[in-house]
Design brief:
Strand order of the largest sheet: 1-2-3-4-5
Order of helices and strands: EEEEE
Strand content: over 45%
Structural class: mainly beta
Shape: globular
Length: about 70
């Protein structure tokens, strides 16, 4: 189970959360992770996970893009 705390921008379109995570592959426990959910529009959402223990400018380790399928 993951627990997170965070906030949203004034428009309610970008939500940023911080939480702790364990990494079973490396044995790390309690790593700080940043989660970002961007609501681009009603048909597209982007969810990112950032590993803040990475010592590089780009900490993004995963991105999921949700796109609503349009009916024809």
């Amino acid at each position: 189970m993951y627990t997170m705390e965070g906030s949203a921008n004034a428009a309610g379109t970008v939500f940023t959360f911080y939480g702790k995570s364990d990494e079973p592959m490396t044995g790390e426990h309690g790593k700080t992770i940043k989660y970002v959910l961007r609501i681009v529009n009603n048909d597209k959402h982007i969810f990112e996970i950032h590993d803040l223990s990475i010592e590089e400018p780009n900490t993004k380790v995963m991105e999921m893009v949700y796109t609503r399928k349009k009916e024809k």
